[in-house]
Amino acid sequence: MTARRFRSRSAAYAALALGLAGSLALTGCNSHSSKKSKKSSFSSSKTSKTSKTKKRRIIGGSAAAAGAAGTASRRVPDCYPSTYKVTFSQQTGPKSHVAVKFKNSTSRDCKLYNAPLLRFNNAKSPLPLLQGTPGHFDGTRITVPAHGYAYAVIPTNTAATKGTEQKSVTIDFMGISASSVTHGPVTVNFAEKRLHVSVGKSKVTNWSSSLHGAQLAGGVGN
User: Which part of the chain is the DUF4232 domain (predicted)?
Assistant: First the structure.
């Protein structure tokens, strides 16, 4: 082989080797770039998922808080007496009785338990109950709607139960537990209100959502 041919082949081999090296370098670069791109894409996806998870937790927590607030707002408070919320009226005739009417003057429902505790003329003990005894929780519980009414009745259809005219009455409302009372007492002066209420050895019914229901419970209804 001549020297000229040897140099020509050597140059060709060198060019081929240089081309292969460049191709390998380019392939490695592309591979590295692809891996980097995939890693960046995975990182972005992971961040997005984490963000969505946190968002769901925040939304879920807000919903739970709103639910708790809604439950609290739905709790029905106890009713409480006052001189203008509780009124008395005497009904005469064969089925004579005193009607006790409570008005819920608030814009919210409230609860009443058992019966009103009534002490006429500063009596030491309240009027006995027709259904149970003072301090005995027998489960009667009614919800009085906003601006609604509740009623109890004191039968006075005999001479003994009618007794004499009373000057005043002190009112307590029974509470949820035995012997407890709520937001009392208040005193109604019958003379100041120009009321004529006669009560003797009688008893008072439990609260009812209607006057007719209270009258039936007291044995003076139709």
Answer: 79-207
